[in-house]
Amino acid sequence: MKILRVNMSKLSTDFEDLPEEWKLIGGRALTAKILNKEVPPSVDPVGPEAKLVIACGPVAGTRAPSCGRVSFGAKSPLTLGIKEANTGGPMGQKLDRLGIRAIIVEGAPEDGQYYLLKITKNEVSLVDAEPYKGKKNYDLLNDLYAVYDKKAALVSIGIAGERGYRAAAITMTDKDGDTSRHAARGGLGAVMAAKGLKAMVIDEKGTPNVEIADRDAYRAAVKNWATVTKENPMLKNMADFGTPGVISALRFLGSMPALNFSNEQLDGVENISGEAIKKLNEERDGKMEGCMPGCLVKCSIVFKNKEKKHVTSSYEYETIALMGTNLGLVDPDVIAELDRLADTIGVDTIEVGAAMGVAASAGKMEMGNADSAFALIDEIEKGTELGAALANGVVATCKYLGVDRIPAYKGQAIAAHDGRVVKAMGVTYATSPMGADHTAGVTYEAFSEAEGAVERSLEAQIHAAIRDSLGYCELATPDNKFLAVTFLKDVINARFGINVTEEDLIDIGKGALKDELQFNQGSEFLTAHPADPEFARTEPVGPNASVFDVNQDEINTIWEKLDAYEFPKG
Known about the structure:
Elements: E1 2-7, E2 12-17, H1 27-38, E3 51-56, E4 70-75, E5 82-87, H2 91-97, E6 100-106, E7 115-119, E8 124-128, H3 137-145, E9 153-156, H4 159-162, E10 170-172, E11 181-183, H5 188-194, E12 197-202, H6 215-231, H7 233-241, H8 247-253, H9 274-283, E13 287-289, E14 300-304, E15 310-312, H10 317-322, H11 332-345, H12 349-361, H13 370-382, H14 385-391, H15 394-401, E16 408-409, E17 412-413, H16 423-431, H17 453-470, H18 481-496, H19 502-521, H20 535-538, H21 552-555
Parallel strand pairs: 1-6, 7-12
Antiparallel strand pairs: 1-2, 3-4, 3-6, 4-5, 7-8, 9-10, 9-12, 10-11, 13-14, 14-15, 16-17
Helix pairs in contact: 1-17, 1-19, 6-18, 11-13, 12-15, 13-14, 14-15, 16-17, 17-19
């Protein structure tokens, strides 16, 4: 396997051998390793010394179910610490078939020009992308597919990235060529723009299948996992309804945010339940799809409007919560259109949705009014002062509007699982190297109990790091997450003809977290942000009037427990 190094200052590309000690890691673990080795933690996130690292998992090219996610890592312009954001789609599978485990993008063009990185079986090249400058993502997609193979994976930034907005996302195509998958959190779209990259084209056409050392063991592992996926109630629900399948339950618990993370009542949530969206979309010829080839869960909602025209292929809970209920909006069509507009501009719907909620509470939008919400998105597209504040995230929006109730941890907006209700989630927000990121470790086990919340968060963060380091999809993980570790162990052993254990994979997750924590120690991550939100400990929310009441001294011990965590025996 190779590492592709792309030097944007020299406009050069070179291959290096993947170090043997990194053979079994990819994704989040590999981005953390490379960033620690090559990037000073104090670097300007959008300066020429910063780097963008892209990495797939070690079994992505086998098309093992749900193993093809790809990670983007960098120092975040939003949190000022290390950040990994991963996404689905076929890109990771294509990189692995091309023999590339990671791409390191470094330097920046002296002339500020934009380029397109083209990767095929026969060449790696940087192509002039100035004709695409200023293009929004959907328009750019159409332009690129007019030139390149429609089966190629495309990666791009919209105008938000070009403007350096700290909530800018990196966008990529799904298996059907729709630009709907996002490495959204942390502002990594601004980092990609600062490197002078407008887009990437990854085309593995003509490459052979990846080598699998023990095909019988591989087939057995996949067959067994297909049975688990088919029979597991949680994954069956995910296949039926996608992530909106949790909406009725989470709104009942009070963990789904509404009206700027307040405890005010909101009517009409039943209109956006998983069941309601499924029924509506089926009437319009929408469908459930997998975002990458080989997916068994197929939880991506391809959503169509009243005219049966495609709106988005990624209609997900987090967006429905932050750009829907958090803004008092419960019309599924309105939320879907807001999602598409955000995707077109290229911003994180969680970060911007939280910022819009703050703006609404400050009188810049009328809660529950669709036209008012669309007007705020228009501010972002036009690049007004308010629009720039929104696109720079919830902390920037609060500063611009003079608001001191800030729904963020370490510079990043709270996601769609309220830590006052889900205590372990609150611990994750407060301790994760990523800031308030739900993908860093979400668990609803004993959700209302403060006792043991630190340990539950630690376990969730370790397992999230394992999945992210091996390219496995969180949404295809059964409630018994240890089953997924065993499956990953089996497919890794089958591909490479080795004998790793579950404990070895646990160590990979721990290692990723240690590397991230180490990077953050030398960065501004721990010092540059407002204090953790006081309202989480003082403002009750939900039917049980919950506050975040986990003892801070206990929270502070979480990483002391990291080494002692073990895979359960028996």
